Amino acid sequence: MTAKRIMSNPTDCIFCKIGSGQIPSACVWTSKEAIAFLDVNPLAEGHTLLIPKQHFADLRDIPADLLGRMLAQAPKLVDAIVRATGASGLNFLQNTGASAGQAVFHVHFHFIPRQANDGLGFRWNAGSYEPGRADALQAAIKAWL
Ligand code: 5GP
Ligand code: ZN
């Protein structure tokens, strides 16, 4: 069964409004098709969001060529954010779907500066596969590609 997807409305989308300049943001970089700005409720100082200006609900919707051009800016953004904040690391994060923590249904990427022992982090409860299960999943994923 495929989970129901949330498709937000671009006419009432906070990130569309930020992308078009209708709503102000602390922009750190922009191009004609993308913008990076400070998250208004940061997980750490310098927490930055990168979005396309055009509305796409999540990562499954954005055209690969646009995504490629946007993400080409990621190395520079990571370097600038780390230098500006004095962070020792950074999480580059993307939430797809409400169960994964997506709250704004306009695709975006998080750049979250990290310090040792900063209290942030995931529960990374790694599991293992029963015999045959990894083979079945490998085949299923390949079949959808
Ligand atoms: P998500 O949970 O969807 O991956 O992340 C959405 C992020 O957008 C959150 O971290 C939230 O703080 C940020 N955000 C929501 N509304 C605004 C806004 O109006 N301005 C800015 N700068 N960030 C926002
Ligand atoms: Zn939007």
Can you describe what's shown?
- The chain is α+β, with helices and mostly antiparallel strands and 145 residues long.
- The longest helix is centred in the middle third of the chain and has 12 residues, at 74-85.
- The chain has a 5-stranded antiparallel beta sheet with strand order 1-2-3-5-4, with helices on one face.
- It has a single domain (10-118), classed as HIT-like (HIT family, subunit A, 2-Layer Sandwich), CATH 3.30.428.10.
- The chain has helices at 14-20, 64-71, 74-85, 133-144; strands spanning 27-30, 34-38, 48-52, 89-93, 109-114.
- The mean pLDDT is 95.
- The chain is globular, with a radius of gyration of 17 Å.
- The two termini are 17 Å apart.
- The protein contains 4 helices and 5 strands.
- The site of guanosine-5'-monophosphate (5GP) has 13 residues, from strand 2.
Topology:
Elements: H1 14-20, E1 27-30, E2 34-38, E3 48-52, H2 64-71, H3 74-85, E4 89-93, E5 109-114, H4 133-144
Antiparallel strand pairs: 1-2, 2-3, 3-5, 4-5
Zinc ion binds next to helix 1.
Short description:
With 145 residues, the chain is an alpha+beta fold.
**Cross-sheet strand order for the largest sheet:** 1-2-3-5-4
The fraction of residues in strands falls at 15-25%
Chemical compounds bound to the protein: guanosine-5'-monophosphate, zinc ion
Number of domains: 1
**Mean pLDDT over all positions:** 95
